[in-house]
Amino acid sequence: MEQRDPQTVLADQFVVDAPSVGLPWKLMVFSIILFIFSLFIFAGIKFGYASYLSQQQDKLKADTVALAKKINPDDQAKYVNFYSQTLNLRKVLDRHQFSGNLFKFLEEKTATNVYYTNASYTGEGGKVTLQGVAATSEALVQQLSVFDSSPELKSAVLSQMRFTEAGMVSFSIDFEFRDNFFESPAL
Amino acid sequence: MRASSKRVMSIGIAALFLLGAFIVYGTLIRPLYVEIEKTRATLNAAQTIFDDQKNATEQVNKAFLDMKNSTKVREVISQALPVGPNMTQALHQIESVIRSNRVSIDALTIKAIPPEVNKQILAKRLGKLDINFSVSGQYESIRDFLRALESNVRVTNVTNFEFSSMSKADRGSSSVSLYTLQLVAQMYYQED
């Protein structure tokens, strides 16, 4: 082992370190970098990202205006008309009724010794009032039983009956037809 | 300069720059970032709307093309439900139905009813023509007339009618029963 000079050893023990400024210096450099970095971030956001977003907004506005021009106003007006017509036609056809079905019904359901003198039809509710003459009261009863068994009718009510001088029976019947009876034309 | 003074000065400068950094963050970066966030949200919303509109525009243009290609359908629809009251066409059609079914017209009144309120967005309103008239003829003629009227190309809805026997007309050697039909009908049109 190496033998050191005792005086050197003693001097080494009493030596005083030179005052150090390393840590505050590093802190100062760090804070300056942080400050410059914050300025850099600000400038980046302000003049980079914000500007980019602003450009995007302007581009989007221009695209939207260009998009609106892609639709021809004439075509638009024609289409609105066409759309409305289709919609309105559907509405009209939904409420359309074929009152002429009444004739076919009466032709099929009327007995030979019965005839009618008057018929009035009301579209709302599918109501019909029928006036006629039967040869005999039995004929009228037979006719009523035919109406009663008709699936097309909700009800058939004899509202009036009178014997005529000629021995015939005049009558009035109120019909109420089922909802779907007037919906489509009878073949 | 003494080392301790240098140290104090370094710490002071560091503190100043740190404070500066905080001030830049607090007064410049943060408000700007909040502003940027709002702009981004607005831009995103606008982009979504734009995409939807672009999609809708493509659909609309496709619909325009389909509409242009379906000329016949448009013609049929326009005949069934014309734009505007078009009373002359209505009268002409009634007259044609009368003539083709061999009935005679006794009286006719026609009146345009203002369009009803429409609940549908964009759709134009529906107007009506109220037609009151009376025809007479033989039973078969009147029956066929009514059927023809109800299946007319312009949609016609009979709301009420009264059918009654009128008289017996002499036609050569045989007498023919005549009937009269008084009816209220509606034709429709779309407002212009």
Within the largest sheet of chain A, what's the order of strands? 1-2-4-3
Can you write the helix and strand succession of chain A as a string? HHHHEEHEE
| Spatial shape of chain A | rod-shaped
The helix content of chain A is: 40-55%
Q: What CATH architecture label of the domain at 101-177 in chain A applies?
A: 2-Layer Sandwich
Q: Mean of residue pLDDT of chain A?
A: 88
CATH topological fold name of the largest domain in chain B = Alpha-Beta Plaits
Major protein interface: A-B, 66 and 66 residues
Rg calc of chain A:
52 Å
Fold-level CATH name of the domain at 101-177 in chain A: Gyrase A, domain 2
The CATH homologous superfamily of the domain at 101-177 in chain A corresponds to General secretion pathway protein M, EpsM
Beta percentage of chain B is 25-35%
> How many strands, which pairing sense, and closed or not: the largest β-sheet of chain B?
4 strands, antiparallel
Task: Characterize the structure shown.
Chain A is of the alpha+beta class and 187 residues long. Chain A has a domain of 77 residues: Gyrase A, domain 2 (2-Layer Sandwich), CATH 3.30.1360.100. Chain A is 53% helix and 20% strand. Chain A contains five helices and four strands; from the N terminus they run ααααββαββ. In chain A, strands 1-2-4-3 form a four-stranded antiparallel sheet. In chain A, strand 3 and strand 4 form a beta hairpin. Chain B has 192 residues and is of the alpha+beta class. Chain B has two domains: 69 residues; 111 residues, Alpha-Beta Plaits. Chain B has a four-stranded antiparallel sheet with strand order 1-2-4-3. The longest helix of chain B is centred in the N-terminal third of the chain and has 67 residues. Chain B starts with a helix and ends with a strand. The relative contact order of chain B is 0.11. The chains are: A alpha+beta (187), B alpha+beta (192). At the A-B interface, helix 2, helix 3 and strand 1 of A face helix 1, helix 2, helix 4 and strand 3 of B.
